[in-house]
Amino acid sequence: NVIREEEASFLRTLDQGLQLVENVISATEGKIVSGQKAFELYDTFGFPKDLTALILRERGLELDEKGFENAMFEQKTRSRAASETSTDDWTILVEGNTETFVGYDLLVNEVKITRYRRIDSKKDGQLYQIVLDSTPFYPEGGGQVGDKGILTSANETIEVLDTKKENNLILHFTKNLPENVNASFIAQVDKNLRSDSASNHSATHLLHQALRVILGTHVEQKGSLVSPNYLRFDFSHFAKVTEQELHQVEMFVNERIQEQLPLIERRDIPFAQAVEEGAMALFGEKYGDNVRAIKFGESMELCGGIHVKNTADIWQFKIVSEGAVAAGIRRIEAITNKGVKEFYDAQENALKEIKETLKNPQDVLKSVTSLQDENAKLKKQVEQLLKEKIDGLKNNLVAEFQVVNGVNFLSKQVDLSMSATKDLAQAIGASKPNSFVFLASIEDNLPNIHCSISKDLVTDRGLNAGNVIRELGKYIEGNGGGQPFFASGKGKDVLGIPEALENAVNFLK
Ligand SMILES: [Zn+2]
């Protein structure tokens, strides 16, 4: 089933890719197709270059290979420049790597700086990395973002922008260095951000459990991101999760929250014992000999993250989106706690505004439906009126044909939208044999032009509507194209329309 789904997903990619190649082809003038455009197809949609080149060859077109290579090179240079970082050597104040993490129990702690260094990154500018003898700051890991907060001494306050772990050191990122690096500091984690993260992260455990109960035990975590604002959870599953299943998952998690399950945390138990007791080891995590097991009711996982003390602290869980990230991998985004309250507040406000806009009807839904019905009716009327207008114009214009060198010739400006002008040019061309029709109109203050040439004139006289649009398009600072018997174009300068209309006749001389 998974293989079939992957095959289907590849075919969908192929299908979309082919449509995109078609778009590129129709936007191409001449025989050479832009390497930049082909690279975008490759880069954004994963459409292979060789396949693009093959399709183009079959259509008598050629891919600008050099342009493709250049675009690829430029992108590589760009991403390299963005990640370039220069790092100074450590200034060591206290020898030895004795930093301890106390953040599972404390949010505030007295600390000393043991070492620091300056880093310069193109992306974030100049920053300092500070290492402490002990720290309550949780470093980014297990999908959970790093803590923010402050370091305060008797004289100053330094803001900690982020916390990360590197080579077993917990690094606190700051914009400035304290004036006295040897002072004692109070390290203080931002409590609100931390508890929002803990709420979202703990809900991830319950979500994982819910998915395995409702969708099946084939569900495995494939990735996770937890920030104070929301949580994101990627997992293996071969089909779209239905509305009904999502609802069940949401209910399951909210039931666990209502049960007020206390956090049972066991630090430093042997890995084998934890797994034997039923703890789930997560994808992509490396575990040491001793692990930390986190239990909320029946959910038990090996995890180094930050959790709420009781599931009741999550308050509410709400899924906001579900979708595919890759073949066989789905992604759920969800919110908890304050996020849910804000979500419902926003929904309520939106509904209130809609009601006010509709002049506070008793039944909002009925009011919207009747607006839609009315809109549909009006649309039909407009279409009918437009059709009548085009028919009338068509009859008037047919009378204005002139014979130039044996060809029925017409060049006119009309007062219609671009698409209606296009339809009109086609209709007139079709109804008059041996004809050359050139129409112009203005939509949104921009000129557009259309040319229809009877097929026999295309073959007998070598006339080409595409060439006409390109040549006359110059008067309106425009461009466009199409087929030899019909082409359209758009321009920027409406003042050039009269000249374009005047010069159309030259194609017959
Ligand atoms: Zn956890």
Overview of this protein structure:
There is one protein chain. By secondary structure, the chain is of the alpha+beta class. It folds into 4 domains: 2-83, no CATH class; 87-189, Elongation Factor Tu (Ef-tu), domain 3, CATH 2.40.30; 197-340, Threonyl-tRNA Synthetase, Chain A, domain 2 (2-Layer Sandwich), CATH 3.30.980.10; 386-508, Diaminopimelate Epimerase, Chain A, domain 1 (Roll), CATH 3.10.310.40. It is 40% helix and 29% strand. It contains 13 helices and 25 strands. The chain has helices at 2-26, 35-45, 49-58, 65-83, 191-214, 243-258, 271-276, 337-357, 364-398, 418-431, 455-461, 465-473, 497-503; strands spanning 32-33, 62-63, 85-87, 91-92, 100-101, 108-121, 125-132, 134-135, 149-152, 157-166, 169-174, 184-189, 221-226, 231-236, 264-270, 290-296, 299-302, 317-326, 329-336, 402-404, 407-413, 435-443, 446-453, 479-483, 486-490. A 6-stranded antiparallel barrel has the order 6-7-11-10-9-12. A 6-stranded mixed β-sheet has the order 20-21-22-23-25-24, sandwiched between helices. A hairpin with a 3-residue loop joins strand 6 (108-121) and strand 7. Helix 2 (35-45) packs across helix 4 (65-83). The longest helix has 35 residues, at 364-398. It starts with a helix and ends in a 6-residue tail after the last helix. The model has no long low-confidence stretch (mean pLDDT 90). The structure holds zinc ion. Zinc ion (ZN) is lined by residues 201, 205, 294, 303, 305, 307.
